[in-house]
Write a structure and sequence with these properties.
113 residues; mainly alpha; 84% helix; elongated
């Protein structure tokens, strides 16, 4: 689950970086700084995905990414796509961890016999 979530967050870092490059031509300095800070948060968040609070923080970061569409209109399309990838990473990651736990339990039981 952490691998998928980390991959999505790092991809979002790059997307925000490119969005800031688009915003620098006609954006205000405050919106550029906000975009850079958001990109930095996307880069640092995979380090805290070991805890549930990291997943909550990653989920909350999806909101300002979509809201950045006020500055860069194309983020109205890209933001929800990456939010969907974030949700998919959580859902698929949980299923994968459940399957892994089941296989470990089965192999652990077979070794004891």
């Amino acid at each position: 689950m952490r691998v998928l979530g980390s991959a999505v967050l790092v991809m979002e870092f790059f997307v925000m970086g490119f969005a800031v490059l688009l915003a620098k031509d006609n954006g205000e300095p405050s919106s550029i700084i906000a975009g850079l800070m958001l990109a930095l948060l996307f880069l640092l968040t995979p380090g805290i995905l070991k805890k549930k609070s990291g997943w909550i923080f990653g989920s909350l970061l999806q909101i300002p990414m979509i809201a950045y569409a006020v500055v860069v209109p194309s983020m109205a399309i890209v933001g929800p796509i990456f939010a969907g990838l974030w949700v998919a990473a959580i859902v698929i990651g949980r299923k994968g961890e459940a399957i892994r736990a089941k296989l470990l339990a089965e192999s652990g039981g077979a070794q004891e016999s």
